[in-house]
Design a protein that fits this description.
- The protein is of the alpha/beta class.
- It has one domain: Vaccinia Virus protein VP39 (Rossmann fold, 3-Layer(aba) Sandwich).
- It contains 7 helices and 9 strands.
- Strands 5-4-3-6-7-9-8 form a 7-stranded mixed β-sheet, with helices on both faces. The chain has a two-stranded antiparallel ribbon with strand order 1-2.
- Helix 1 crosses helix 7.
- The termini are close together.
Length: about 240
């Protein structure tokens, strides 16, 4: 499907009356929809899949195993985004040596997505076993005080020159529990749920969901790159 096509039924309709067909994006390991919202804003029709119920997900949602779903339904979509569990790739895991057995999902997801032949994006935390085509952080999008670097690997090997991450003043790291007593929880008064929501640009989720979310600004930016890539592919 060519993204953002005006459908002409032979009638001389005004631009406002023409139907715009959006490319369909499958949002795997979707959680509460931070990534999905960014792609929606970029111009995609978004459908989410997660193993757990996601009552706050703002788009069409299917509960189930993400890899099984993509193997069965990939032909219904134009592009795929995946955010496999990051806990076993995180800084905390490397400090404690503990893992939850989910590290294999990153490679397993990549294998499944490559098998579809569709354009795809995989997101995870710094240090994950992936190629970091895009390294994004809140300071690059004027998100107030947000320190939250995330890596994105793309099927087309996208690349973009950006200045390195740079923060001044008080920063917010959305992790742990809002208003907690540790630096991880924002003990300096910058860790309330309201602060997290402002920093992330997300206002429809719980605090726990925020801790697992991707700021929509990141995937809105990636989505624009993705649409450009898809347009070149059909040109």
């Amino acid at each position: 499907m060519i993204p953002l096509i005006n459908v002409d039924d032979g009638v001389q309709n005004s631009p406002e009356e023409r139907c715009v067909v959006k490319p369909r994006l499958l949002d795997l390991f979707c959680c509460a929809g931070g990534a999905g919202m960014g792609y929606h804003r970029a111009g995609f029709e978004v459908v989410g899949v997660d193993i757990d119920p996601q009552p706050n997900y703002p788009f069409e949602f299917h509960q189930g195993d993400a890899i099984e779903y993509v193997l069965r339904h990939w032909r219904e979509f134009d592009v795929i985004h995946a955010s496999p569990p990051c806990q076993d790739h995180s800084v905390t895991r490397h400090r404690t040596g503990k893992d939850n057995g989910s590290a294999w999902l990153l490679d397993g997801t990549r294998t499944a997505l490559n098998g579809t032949g569709l354009p795809w994006v995989i997101e995870n935390v710094p240090g994950a076993s992936m190629r970091a085509d895009f390294k994004l952080c809140g300071c690059m999008f004027d998100l107030p005080g947000l320190r939250r670097e995330r890596w994105f690997e793309t099927s087309w090997g996208g690349y973009e020159m950006r200045p390195p991450c740079y923060h001044t003043g008080k920063t917010i790291t959305v992790a742990g529990h809002p208003g907690g007593t540790s630096a991880r929880d924002g003990k300096a008064g910058s860790g309330s749920t309201a602060d997290w929501r402002r920093a992330m640009g997300i206002d429809w989720t719980t605090a726990r969901e925020l801790a697992q979310a991707i700021p929509p600004a990141y995937t809105e930016h990636i989505g624009a790159q993705l649409l450009e890539h898809m347009t070149k592919q059909v040109a």
